[in-house]
Amino acid sequence: MRPLFTGVYLVSPVVTEHAREIAAVLACRPGASLSHRSAAYLHGLLPYPADPAPVDVTVTGGRGGNRPGIALHRTKALRGHEIRERCGIPLTAPLRTVIDLASCSTAIELERAVAEAFALGLMNRAQLLRAVDAAAGRRGVARLRALVDGERQPRRTRSASERRLLNAIVGAGLPAPLANHAVGGWEADLYWPGHGLVVEVDGYAAHSSPRAFERDRRKDADLRARGLTVQRFTARQVRDDLAATVAWIARELG
Q1: 92 close to 60: Cβ distance less than 8 angstroms
Q2: Cβ neighbours of residue 195 closer than 8 Å, sequence gap 6 or more
Q3: For residue 228, what are the CA distances in angstroms to 110, 143, 175, 254?
Q4: pLDDT tens string 52-62
Q5: Which of 196, 231, 226 is nearest to 216 (CA)?
Q6: pTM here?
Q7: Which domains occur in the chain, in start order?
Q8: C-alpha to C-alpha distance for 162 and 190, rounded to whole angstroms
Q9: Secondary structure of the chain in the HEC alphabet?
Q10: Tens digit of pLDDT for each residue in 93-114?
């Protein structure tokens, strides 16, 4: 046996999927639930980090002290509709998770989580605005309202390169595209419907196999047959030659 957290041991030579999350909740029981970033990872709102991070757990009341490896959060109460269960782990519901995430995430992470929640059908704008009203005064809620209360919808991006290019486009004062938007049965990374322009950002890992190469060629041919201009940039171009990439897009947008 080896300890994962105080009072919780692993009886196996292998750490199975979600073992740390399960152990953290067990270490903080009773009434403990996965929350904040850790709940966002499990809901699929944010990608898991490359390196293990402290597990976010929310408990009701003022019980318990700090525990190594666990980011402990306290609240007066968690109501029934604020709790779900995934993979046998109690965790905060998507709406509550996004409200909590607003207090500890970057602006890019928060926008990505909200956009992903909308895309997955876990919540809609009206439901989130009602939750924001109910949480008025909590840390981060004001910027969450600013994100969802305007005309522009949160943008869903799939990679750091997409987000970097999107931020540079908006920062240059260019028209904002739709991100990861369905076009003719395909999903376009960045799409300007009024200009007939599609920009794809190709990372090596997702686009280097023969199958991916063939798929990309079919996608480009189909989109061009619909009268669209399709341009691909590599992740390296976005990283090392961002100004030239944005300048090309600016010329195409006229």
Answers
A1: no
A2: 175, 252, 253, 254
A3: 31, 36, 17, 15
A4: 889 999 998 76
A5: 231
A6: 0.67
A7: 2-148 (no CATH), 160-253 (3.40.960.10)
A8: 8
A9: CEEEECCEEECCCCCCCCHHHHHHHHHHCCCCEECHHHHHHHHCCCCCCCCCCCEEEEEECCCCCCECCEEEEEECCCCHHHEEEECCEEEECHHHHHHHHCCCCCHHHHHHHHHHHHHCCCCCHHHHHHHHHHCCCCCCHHHHHHHHCCCCCCCCCCCHHHHHHHHHHHHCCCCCCEEEEEECCEEEEEEECCCCEEEEEECHHHHCCHHHHHHHHHHHHHHHHCCCEEEEEEHHHHHHCHHHHHHHHHHHHC
A10: 999 999 999 999 888 788 888 9
- Per-residue tokens: 220: 């480009």
What pLDDT tens digit does each residue of the chain (254 aa) get?
Answer: 888 888 899 887 777 888 999 999 999 988 899 999 999 999 998 888 878 889 999 998 765 567 888 999 999 888 989 999 998 999 999 999 999 999 998 887 888 889 888 878 899 889 999 999 999 889 999 989 988 886 666 666 667 788 788 888 888 889 888 888 888 888 888 999 999 999 999 876 555 577 878 888 999 999 999 999 999 999 899 989 999 999 999 999 98
